[in-house]
């Protein structure tokens, strides 16, 4: 649409936009069941350490294309968009730790921190579907998905996989999804399970298995 030059100013702008795109990508991965089937691999560990940052599902590398391609179409240099996305991802790697407690309050208010990201990985009811941010936690504050770390975090899924088998961890989300679709009566309800949020069930109908998160 535009021919945006590659400058330090445009890089800062695209980094902020890539971070915003990541927020919505991450939020949607949690709220659509067939997307959650792959992203739930990242949340399946009952522990929280640097290795969790590298737990990825079968399609986790595919969906970001749809959220960052608009930045290229807008006119930003594709390589610059790629670098911005990599920086957003790299920043979050360091957040997967219990060693760092809460930071200086202004930092906690503006940036995503280990404390905020611990909340995101919690299966506590008050922590579910909170703190989707990449670099800037202000997106969660703006869009109503922020939760402060107060109670002790229980890591992992609401329904744990209870297995250390890497194949089970890698494919459990799709196994659960297809089981729920198969067991749900009615074609429309099956679509509801597939495209609805985790744990979706019709207002009047047979319950499906306990939601994964």
Summarize, please:
This protein is an all-alpha fold and 213 residues long.
List the uncertain runs: 206-211
Q: How confident is the prediction overall: mean pLDDT?
A: 91
The count of DSSP E runs of length 2 or more, i.e. the number of strands, is 0
Number of separate helices: 9
Shape: globular
The largest sheet is:
none
Q: Provide the helix percentage.
A: 40-55%
The sequence of SSEs as H and E is HHHHHHHHH
Structural class, please? mainly alpha
* Rg from Cα: 18 Å
Portion in strands: under 5%
Straight-line distance between termini = 40 Å
Care to describe what's here?
Helix 1 (8-31) crosses helix 2 (33-39), helix 2 packs antiparallel against helix 8 and helix 3 crosses helix 4. This protein has helices at residues 8-31, 33-39, 64-74, 78-93, 105-110, 114-120, 138-143, 166-183, 187-195. 49% of the residues lie in helices and 0% in strands. The longest helix has 24 residues, at 8-31. The protein has a domain at 8-143. The protein has 213 residues and is mostly helical. The chain has nine helices and no strands.
């Amino acid at each position: 649409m535009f021919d945006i030059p590659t400058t330090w100013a445009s890089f800062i702008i695209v980094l902020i936009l890539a971070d915003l795109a990541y927020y919505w990508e991450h939020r949607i991965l949690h709220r659509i069941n067939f997307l959650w089937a792959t992203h739930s691999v990242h949340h399946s560990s009952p522990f929280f350490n640097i290795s969790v940052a590298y737990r990825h599902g079968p399609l986790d590398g595919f969906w970001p294309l749809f959220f960052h391609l608009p930045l290229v179409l807008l006119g930003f240099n594709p390589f610059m968009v790629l670098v911005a996305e990599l920086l957003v991802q790299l920043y979050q790697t360091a957040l997967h730790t219990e060693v760092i407690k809460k930071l200086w309050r202004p930092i906690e208010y503006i940036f995503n921190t280990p404390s905020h990201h611990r909340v995101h990985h919690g299966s506590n009811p008050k922590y579910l579907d909170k703190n989707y941010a990449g670099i800037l936690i202000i997106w969660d504050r703006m869009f109503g998905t922020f939760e402060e770390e107060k109670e002790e975090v229980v890591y992992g899924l609401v329904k744990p996989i209870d297995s250390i088998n890497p194949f089970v961890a890698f494919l459990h989300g799709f196994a659960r999804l297809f089981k729920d679709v198969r067991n749900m009566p009615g074609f429309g309800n099956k679509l509801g399970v597939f495209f609805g949020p985790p744990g979706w069930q019709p207002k009047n109908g047979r319950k499906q298995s306990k939601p994964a998160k």
